[in-house]
Amino acid sequence: MTQDELWKAHYQEYFRFIETNHRNPSKHYAEERKLHTWWKHNRKLVNAGKMDSNRLEKFNALVALSEKNHHINQYK
Q1: Residue 39 scores a pLDDT above 70
Q2: How many Å apart are CA 7 and CA 56, to the nearest integer?
Q3: What does the alpha-carbon distance between residue 47 and residue 49 come to, in Å, rounded to a whole number?
Q4: Using an 8 Å Cβ cutoff, are 69 and 18 in contact?
Q5: How far does CA 55 lie from the centroid of its chain?
Q6: Nearest to 39 by CA among 66, 57, 19
Q7: What is the per-residue pLDDT across 3-23, written as a single tens digit (0 to 9) for each?
Q8: How far apart are CA 5 and CA 36, in angstroms?
Q9: What does the alpha-carbon distance between residue 25 and residue 23 come to, in Å, rounded to a whole number?
Q10: Distance between CA atoms of 28 and 3, rounded to whole angstroms?
Q11: Which residues 6+ apart lie within 8 Å of 51 measured at CB?
Q12: Quick count: other Cβ atoms within 10 Å of Cβ 40?
């Protein structure tokens, strides 16, 4: 599996998690820790300006979805 395929697999897994659970993965649950770490790593790449432009567009869409769910869950 190439790095690009692996990134896409993690992206899809994170996306499905948010769609299913309507929240972000937590670092406090072992089964969610891998997704949380992937998210954190990619946020660091974005902040450093080192993320590939193809991935950046997809990741920004994921950030928007994540923030939308955060705001919805905040008022429940």
Answers
A1: yes
A2: 12
A3: 5
A4: yes
A5: 12
A6: 66
A7: 999 999 999 999 999 999 988
A8: 19
A9: 7
A10: 27
A11: 42, 45, 59
A12: 10
